[in-house]
Amino acid sequence: MADTAGTQKTADPTDRPTVVLGVSGGIAAYKACELLRRFTESGHDVRVVPTASALHFVGEATWAALSGRPAATEVWADVHEVPHVAIGRAADLVVVAPATADTLARAAHGLADDLLTNTLLTARCPVVFAPAMHTEMWEHPATRENVATLRRRGAVVIEPATGRLTGADTGKGRLPEPEEIYALCRRVLARGVPARDLTGRHVVVSAGGTREPLDPVRYLGNRSSGRQGYALAATAAARGARVTLVAANTALPDPGGVTVVPVGTARQLREAVLKAAPDADAVVMAAAVADFRPAHYASGKIKKRDGQDPEPVALVRNPDVLAEVAAERARPGQVVVGFAAETDDVLAAGRAKLARKGCDLLVVNEVGEDRTFGSPDNEAVVLAADGGSTPVPHGPKEALADTVWDLVAARLGQGAPPAGE
């Protein structure tokens, strides 16, 4: 796979984005049809480049019908147009889905024995690989080294999903769902040539709202939907990071290429974050973690009794996960980011919380019944421990996510990522 630094395609704002969809020879090739449909229906000009093996799973006629143009399959077809060079040069994005272990190996070693690998060598645009293979193949040291090589060169290699594989096998190696791959590709396209600031980095993001049970039926909770945390996770993946998302009680689809750890309570969230944090370069605590929990859990449903007022609910403090992570950095240089949802005197409350928690950055936003929670948009000010502040105007939560990662990346600096990444 060619380095993304170099001559870029000249952008024309009137052009439709050009996407090259590479398809490797795996059973998951049928899912690429849905990915192709999403690109074409959203106005992208898509050229499909299947390998010879891929055509055993989905035929050339299917790709041509869905894309509206012939599927490029061989280096020797239309030689006068020099397709092995022209296709990559013309692309705004190359996405390989599924990417088999063989395709990853050939791309990492710079082989060019078919049209797809030639295209990867000539592309000077963002490149996304969506791997799909059996667990043993994904976990093999050779595959892991090939993935690390591609990521170091600037490619985005999505983490495969965990689930049902070919036959009765279950494990990590399943192709992420097409809508997840599509969403990540849209984020990559939005940034143009992807920033390399998070390539090889591991980041931990918490999202959603914890729930503290009162009895088997009721709980104390909050209005957080998890949308901002999910935007942070998806954006980090699009910028090349390996992402662990600790998700508390969300109803959102898993972001493509992200490892999701579901939790319920504040104590479960603390356990999951502390487990993931030791090798993380950054921890971003976007979840709304309950400050208190009931002192006693009723094993049976609390009944309403005629003529009697309910017993008061005694509360005890939950652990302060953000302060704990910030105080006990798992590794030197780890960047810790907190979130503050405030209703009154927002900036003053945010600066006080930043000092109290000891984190590097604090994202402060004003919340209310009809503001922020559950909305696709957000508005915030990112406060820094060194006294700086970065306002983020009202807009999509992905825009705020990019600002947060810009600030995190600047603090991580240009040092090499950990060995083995």
UniProtKB/TrEMBL annotation:
UniProt keywords, alphabetically: Decarboxylase, Flavoprotein, FMN, Ligase, Lyase, Magnesium, Metal-binding, Multifunctional enzyme
A molecular function GO annotation: phosphopantothenate--cysteine ligase activity
InterPro entries: CoaB-like_sf, CoaBC, DNA/pantothenate-metab_flavo_C, Flavin_trans-like, Flavoprotein
GO CC annotations, alphabetized: phosphopantothenoylcysteine decarboxylase complex
Residue ranges of every copy of the DNA/pantothenate metabolism flavoprotein C-terminal domain listed in the record: 198-410
Domain Flavoprotein: 18-186
Pathway(s) served: Cofactor biosynthesis; coenzyme A biosynthesis; CoA from (R)-pantothenate: step 2/5; Cofactor biosynthesis; coenzyme A biosynthesis; CoA from (R)-pantothenate: step 3/5
One BP annotation, GO: coenzyme A biosynthetic process
Region (Phosphopantothenoylcysteine decarboxylase): 1-202
Cofactor: FMN; Mg(2+)
SUPFAM superfamilies per UniProt: CoaB-like, Homo-oligomeric flavin-containing Cys decarboxylases, HFCD
Cofactor binding note: Binds 1 FMN per subunit.
Region described as Phosphopantothenate--cysteine ligase: spans on this chain: 203-421
Family: In the N-terminal section; belongs to the HFCD (homo-oligomeric flavin containing Cys decarboxylase) superfamily. In the C-terminal section; belongs to the PPC synthetase family.
PANTHER family given in the database record: HOMO-OLIGOMERIC FLAVIN CONTAINING CYS DECARBOXYLASE FAMILY, PHOSPHOPANTOTHENOYLCYSTEINE DECARBOXYLASE
Record's protein name: Coenzyme A biosynthesis bifunctional protein CoaBC
Gene behind this protein: coaBC
